[in-house]
């Protein structure tokens, strides 16, 4: 696997850098709030990266309530401790700008991950996934479940949902290519972000298209509703549901067979990559558009002209790993 | 409740603050607590005893402390106000709208913020003092009302368009190290100490708090006084809104959510009796410093936020319990000595 070849390289690189830095590097991770399993998994990813790099200490702290003011208090204390970098999943993109600017003025590297700080207040932002990456994953999972040919349908949120529309547009582009030419998209239905509506829309699709083989639901609400509809209609094994969902909500459907695999951002990878990028910012004393930054086993990340980058593809969950992650989020 | 037999007639003679009184009272406990916070902070973090860090952290609690000054007076007169944080939110929103749509400069924005706060306070004051409604009922209502108006106007949105001259109010420092909000807090504290403890107006506050009927029959215009105090408290919330909005450089309807409890915690820790008639501004100022620096010490150790609130709770209960325990022991000590005499 890639990991095995990359690991020694990363370690070697880290040792050289570590020797140059000599002292311990302190990277602070400030999630939206505490007690959120998603961010605890991100912290574990950060710890993994810190261990790999060596000589890096991870500070993980957040306010008790999900507010920008609480995060500002935490960041203020981190500035006082003169940490080397602060990685934030922001509760408010604008309200954090003044405190982040102050941190940067004092030589601290500030970046955001998951939820962005406005461009003025950070040196880079790490998105959890790109739209093309998410779209490609969903089609690949479909092929994995039903083979390269067959009728498929989409159950989305609302006709106005920005993210979903972007993913659907990317899927339509990919369907026009050679790789996915055997898949035939028969209809896009809208569950309006509600469980019961998504459920009814799925049943309507199942009745209308008897040859339907897969339903793609790029929405955490729609995917579990669609899987339930497939099970209730006794179509398990005939129609597969895939898309974007949460392991804790979908583990049951994976075991029953209505869902073979699904995707969502992996918080461990996100925290891991964010920590690596923060370390790169410290080593390179900042970053500019076009820079390519190393991130250990996650490969490398290139910053676009808005100083943003993202994890390549969402993480795939199936029967082999869903239970492990169901306990996390 | 009172254990002491020779409970002094607590109708305060002028002035209501003296060196002797400070030494016997809550202030001493608070100074002790402050010393403990400094010792503990220094022992637990190498970053605590740094004048820049200490002063920097005052920006975090000065807005709350400003509101505590006004709320202390309201509570001394047996009233209560829990709408301050919502007044702050509405004032902040009105400033935001004025900045976004009218493109006003810093000075008019500040005046608008203060005026909105005072107006909201006057609404509370009118309902409480003129219509005779209970303060707790009125301010529970306006707490929802004021924030509801802000949420209704802005929804999930936010306003981030403020002139730099305005945001500088919340982000600049006197002598490059003291946040402006803390400077204003200290100056206003002095004004509040003088007003409350060295003037006739101040004595009227305590008279009203100790015995409303008595105060009224002694010629204190109690309703006018209560109205003024609620208006003043609104004004202080407006001032806090100026500093917080400028510090964040933006506003949203859920700004300062839940801050009213932190304000009341500060006031009660400062020794103001929740049943009225008792308390000092110096106590409230000390309490602000104790809470503020405790929070700094705790966050500097990267203690999770949900444990931070445990510390504040323990501090509050402990500081109220200590003098009571002290009094009890002093009383027992007296009893033990009496037979020998």
List keywords for this structure.
heterodimer; A: 329 residues; alpha/beta; Rossmann fold; 6-stranded parallel β-sheet; 4-stranded parallel β-sheet; 14 strands; elongated; B: mainly alpha; ABC transporter involved in vitamin B12 uptake, BtuC; two-stranded antiparallel sheet; 14 helices
Provide an overview of this structure:
The complex is a heterodimer of chains A (329) and B (341). Chain A is 45% helix and 20% strand. Chain A is α/β, with parallel strands linked by helices. Chain A folds into 2 domains: 2-127 and 266-312, Rossmann fold, CATH 3.40.50; 131-264, Rossmann fold, CATH 3.40.50. In chain A, the strands form 4 sheets. Chain A has a 6-stranded parallel sheet with strand order 2-1-3-4-5-13, sandwiched between helices. A 4-stranded parallel sheet of chain A has the order 7-6-8-9. Chain A has a two-stranded antiparallel ribbon with strand order 10-14. In chain A, strand 1, helix 2 (37-53) and strand 2 form a beta-alpha-beta unit. By secondary structure, chain B is mostly helical. Chain B has one domain: ABC transporter involved in vitamin B12 uptake, BtuC (Orthogonal Bundle). Helix content of chain B is 73%, strand content 1%. A two-stranded antiparallel sheet of chain B has the order 1-2. The longest helix of chain B is centred in the last third of the chain and has 33 residues, at 305-337. Chain B is globular, with a radius of gyration of 21 Å. The model of chain B has no long low-confidence stretch (mean pLDDT 88). Classes of the chains: A alpha/beta (329), B mainly alpha (341). Chain A binds chain B through residues 34-35, 59-65, 67-70, 72-74, 76-77, 79-82, 92, 94-95, 97-98, 102, 118, and chain B through 45, 47, 50, 53, 56-57, 59-60, 158, 160, 167, 170-171, 244, 247-250, 252, 254-258, 295-296, 299-300, 302-306, 308-309.
């Amino acid at each position: 696997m890639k990991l095995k070849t990359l690991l020694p390289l990363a370690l070697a690189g880290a040792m050289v850098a570590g020797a140059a830095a000599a002292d311990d590097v302190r990277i602070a991770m400030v999630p939206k709030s505490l007690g959120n399993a998603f961010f605890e998994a991100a912290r574990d990813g950060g710890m993994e990266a810190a261990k790999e790099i060596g000589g890096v200490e991870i500070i993980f702290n957040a306010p008790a309530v999900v507010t920008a003011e609480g995060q500002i208090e935490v960041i203020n204390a981190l500035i006082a401790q003169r940490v080397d970098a602060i990685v934030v999943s922001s509760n408010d993109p604008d309200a954090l700008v003044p405190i982040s600017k102050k941190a940067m003025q004092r030589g601290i590297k500030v970046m955001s991950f998951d939820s962005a700080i406005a461009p003025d207040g950070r040196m880079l932002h790490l998105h959890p996934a790109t739209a093309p990456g998410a779209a490609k994953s969903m089609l690949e999972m479909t092929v994995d479940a039903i083979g390269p040919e067959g009728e498929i349908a989409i159950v989305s949120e609302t006709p106005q949902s920005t993210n979903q529309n972007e993913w659907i547009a990317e899927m339509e582009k990919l369907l026009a290519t050679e790789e996915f030419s055997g898949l035939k998209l028969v209809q896009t239905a809208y569950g309006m972000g509600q469980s019961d509506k998504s459920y009814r829309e799925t049943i309507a699709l199942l009745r209308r298209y008897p040859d339907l083989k897969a339903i793609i639901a790029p929405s955490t609400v729609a995917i579990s509703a669609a899987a339930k509809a497939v099970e209730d209609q006794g179509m398990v094994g005939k129609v597969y549901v895939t898309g974007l969902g949460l392991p804790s909500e979908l583990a049951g459907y994976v075991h029953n067979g209505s869902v073979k695999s699904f995707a969502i951002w992996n918080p461990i990878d996100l925290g891991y990559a964010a920590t690596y990028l923060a370390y790169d910012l410290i080593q390179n004393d900042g970053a500019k558009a076009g820079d390519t930054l190393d991130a250990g086993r996650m490969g490398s990340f290139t910053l676009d002209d808005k100083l943003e980058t993202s994890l390549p593809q969402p993480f795939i969950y199936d029967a082999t790993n869903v239970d492990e992650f169901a306990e996390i989020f | 409740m009172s254990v002491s037999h020779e409970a002094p007639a607590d109708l305060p003679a002028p002035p209501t603050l003296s060196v002797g009184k400070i030494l016997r009272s809550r202030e001493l406990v608070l100074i002790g607590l402050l010393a403990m916070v400094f010792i503990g902070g220094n022992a637990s973090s190498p970053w605590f005893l740094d004048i820049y860090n200490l002063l920097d952290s005052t920006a975090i609690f000065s807005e709350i402390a400003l509101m505590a000054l006004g709320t202390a007076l309201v509570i001394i007169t047996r009233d209560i106000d829990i709408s301050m944080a919502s007044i702050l939110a509405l004032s902040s929103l009105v400033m935001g709208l004025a900045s976004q749509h009218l493109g006003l400069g810093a000075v008019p924005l500040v005046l608008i913020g203060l005026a909105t706060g005072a107006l909201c306070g006057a609404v509370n004051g009118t309902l409480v003092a003129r219509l005779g409604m209970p303060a707790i009922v009125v301010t529970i209502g306006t707490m929802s009302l004021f924030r509801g108006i802000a949420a209704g106007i802005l929804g999930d949105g936010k306003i981030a368009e403020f002139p730099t001259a305005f945001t500088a109010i919340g982000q600049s420092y006197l002598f490059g190290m003291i946040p402006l909000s803390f400077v204003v807090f200290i100056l206003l504290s002095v004004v509040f100490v003088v007003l409350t403890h060295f003037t006739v107006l101040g004595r009227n506050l305590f008279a009203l708090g100790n015995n409303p009927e008595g105060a009224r029959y002694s010629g204190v215009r109690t309703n006018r006084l209560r109205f003024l105090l609620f208006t003043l408290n609104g004004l202080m919330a407006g001032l806090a809104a100026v500093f917080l909005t400028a510090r964040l450089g933006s506003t949203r309807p859920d700004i300062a959510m839940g801050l009213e409890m932190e304000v009341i915690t500060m006031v009660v820790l400062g020794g103001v009796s929740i049943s009225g008639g008792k308390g000092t501004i110096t106590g409230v100022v000390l309490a602000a410093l104790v809470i503020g620096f405790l929070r700094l010490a705790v966050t500097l150790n990267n203690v999770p936020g949900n444990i931070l609130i445990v510390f504040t709770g323990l501090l509050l209960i402990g500081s109220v319990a200590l003098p009571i325990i002290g009094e009890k022991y002093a009383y027992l000590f007296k009893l033990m000595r009496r037979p020998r005499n």
